[in-house]
Amino acid sequence: MSKGFLLVVSGPSGCGKGTVCKELFKRNEELIFSVSVTTRKPRNGEINGVNYFFIHEEKFNNMVENHEFLEYAQVHNNYYGTPKKFVLEKIEKGEVVVLEIDVQGALQVKKAYPEAVFIFLLPPSMNELKERIIKRGTETEKDINIRMKNAFKEIEFIDEYDYIVINDKVMDAVEKIETIITAEKLKVKRHKNIMEKIIS
Amino acid sequence: MSKGFLLVVSGPSGCGKGTVCKELFKRNEELIFSVSVTTRKPRNGEINGVNYFFIHEEKFNNMVENHEFLEYAQVHNNYYGTPKKFVLEKIEKGEVVVLEIDVQGALQVKKAYPEAVFIFLLPPSMNELKERIIKRGTETEKDINIRMKNAFKEIEFIDEYDYIVINDKVMDAVEKIETIITAEKLKVKRHKNIMEKIIS
Q1: How far apart are CA B137 and CA B128, in angstroms?
Q2: Interface of chain B against chain A, CB under 8 Å?
Q3: Mean pLDDT in chain A?
Q4: What digits encode the pLDDT tens for the residues B114-143?
Q5: pTM higher than 0.95, yes or no?
């Protein structure tokens, strides 16, 4: 059996990583969704261990101190983090774990776990990105400008990533990610026992 | 425009790299066949610059001295080599150059040009490999044993390679190589100008 890997799908706000990952999971049921730990209260219908691992802030802080996160962040007074143990256990079993995350989070993961496979999802152009953020209709003009400034800054970190996928059409982007997954599974480093298998 | 790359398809004698590469070129006309330099005389129908670059031994020795080869070897009193210039020029133009070569040659290329993408083509088992060599009907029992011994030795170099493709069915192996090519084209390092393109 070969080893799995962590696939980090990341990119600036508005690049469409949510939509792309949703479609990716729909088409590839064998992929494992990286379940985050959070200190926020569960919403209606959310299941512990499926949507999130819901824990108290004290436990979260302990996990931070014990370096049990691949990355973590604070959003609106709540904490969110990616638990290392969950990811590594799945990988050992040969699974591909997908983590959809913003650029700041991906850069943290890169430091904690450089063996992961990093995909940078890009809009076809920065104008297109701006239009997508405007279309959401949830942001003020000031917010939009902040997001655009951040996007320009974030793109400068692209060299930290392995692959670049331009999200022009969602299905094309999903297919490209599927191709990357298939190719990554063929990497020699994930088949350390291959010699024994072939020789036997 | 993105940069191309050199794809080295290699593996032990009998792994089927000739058949797989023939099919790969048939299905993907945009791939560039890496044309070797040789000191042997052209055979009927062979065209200089297409099948080989035919040169004299003195010129070959000069090229060796000037480190103009990614690899070279002597076979039956003739010399064969992969000219660096041919490969690098195509790569600069964004082309994917495919080099089908034995393991010894691939290891030379790895030293001279580690940026290449290395695929190790494996038979499904060593018994299958032996049967394939026997089926050819061109080798004595002694030759077959030597080839098998070499194959066992060569497999130990698999860690020098990037990808492993098991050649159980030819078309499956070809499709896997096509997937690797598609994924490799998405590598960030081949799109150094992507930021300018997106931002503009």
Answers
A1: 15
A2: 120, 122-126, 152, 155-156, 158-159, 161-165, 176, 179-180, 182-184, 186-189, 191, 194-195, 198-200
A3: 93
A4: 999 999 999 988 888 898 888 888 888 898
A5: no
What's the complex ipTM? 0.92
Cβ neighbors of B147 (< 8 A, separation 6 or more) are B12, B13, B14, B133, B139
Q: To the nearest whole angstrom, how far is the Cα of A5 from the nearest Cα of chain B?
A: 15
Domain A5-34+95-199 -> CATH class: alpha beta
Instruction: With a cut of 90, say whether residue A31 has pLDDT above it.
Output: yes
B188 CB burial (10 A radius; 0-12, 13-18, 19+): middle
Chain A contacts to B (CB-CB under 8 A): 120, 122-126, 152, 155-156, 158-159, 161-165, 176, 179-180, 182-184, 186-188, 191, 194-195, 198-200
Residue A80 forms beta bridges with which residues?
Answer: A38, A73
Tokens of A43: 């919403």
Is there a contact between A22 and A121 (Cβ–Cβ < 8 Å)?
A: no
**Is domain B5-34+94-199 given the CATH code 3.30.390.10 in the classification?**
no
Residues of chain B with Cβ-Cβ distance to A120 below 8 Å are 188
CB pairs under 8 A between A and B: 83
Domain ranges, ordered by start, for chain A: 5-34+95-199
Rg (CA), chain A: 18
Q: How far is B12 from chain A (nearest CA, A)?
A: 13
Q: Which residues pair with B118 in a beta bridge?
A: B8
The DSSP secondary-structure symbol of B68 reads -
DSSP string across B110-179? HHH-TTSEEEEEE-S-HHHHHHHHHHH--S-HHHHHHHHHHHHHHHTTGGG-SEEEE-SSHHHHHHHHHH
Say whether B53 sits in a helix, a strand or coil. Answer: strand
- Choose the closest CB to B120 out of A156, A180, A188: A188
User: Which pair of structure tokens corresponds to residue A76?
Assistant: 């609106």
pLDDT at B138: 82
Distance from CA of B197 to the nearest CA of A (A): 8
CB atoms within 10 A of CB A65: 8
